[in-house]
Amino acid sequence: xxxxxxxxxxxxxxxxxxxxxxxxxxxxxxxxxxxxxxxxxxxxxxxxxxxxxxxxxxxxxxxxxxxxxxxxxxxxxxxxxxxxxxxxxxxxxxx
Length: 95
Hints:
The chain has four helices and no strands. The radius of gyration is 15 Å and the shape is elongated. The relative contact order is 0.20. The protein has helices spanning 2-28, 36-60, 65-73, 80-89. The N and C termini lie close together (6 Å). It has one domain.
């Protein structure tokens, strides 16, 4: 389950970067909203899956509340999931 969570965290982080640094500038700078809907939908779905998996892992792995909250909050800022993965999961086996 941790391996799946790490994959979702990576994809969620990439989707946020695409949304914030590709789709939104295309819409607001170049008046081309074509990429907002697919990028936003992908990011929204991945964000939801990320939080659900984090919640499942909190109970499966007996995480303390502090760790769980930090991991959930890491999904908000750009690059947060990448930093979180390195801090909490870089030494974890791909289980």
